Amino acid sequence: MNKQVLEAKKKAVVEINDGLKNSETVAVVSYQGLTVAELQELRRALMDADACFGVYKNTLVNRALKESNEPDLSDLLNGPNGFVFSKDVSKGPKALVKFSRYHEKLVVKGGLIDGKKASAEDIVTISKLPDKNGLISMFLSCLQAPVRNFAYAVSKIAEKKPAAAAPAPAANAAAPAAPAAN
Prior knowledge:
Layout: H1 3-21, E1 25-30, H2 36-48, E2 51-55, H3 58-67, E3 82-86, H4 91-102, E4 107-113, E5 116-119, H5 120-127, H6 132-160, H7 171-174
Antiparallel strand pairs: 1-3, 1-4, 2-3, 4-5
Helix pairs in contact: 1-3, 4-5
């Protein structure tokens, strides 16, 4: 085997390993039938979602999966495949599923979610979840709700009751005491 080819393959395996290490979600997709313009559109959509799309030989992906002790995806690795590496669990799959709605030739086969094998349905389900910031916002809203409801109840009670009249100052207390007459 030519040394240049061997080096290129080793470089590809290292690139795949880096993608696996730095990604929370890896999706395997069939892109057969998409035009070059559609693939560029997909790459742009994924780039906006902090994800990337790559095409690698299935044997090199299998080798990289074995080296990084990831689950076996050999049942998904038949035919031409594209691989979507997403740093956020839901952003990459969300962009991928949205793109596949308008381009039926892009088919999600499955992949990895946090190092565990996932089916195509799992990838679609993950895409429907809000991103990390959305989940944090929802959680904080749940924590804030009891305090907000209590403050609302107190303000309504305060509006119902008329303000208690302030006691009028005593007339004798306000005037200085006169000296006693002898």
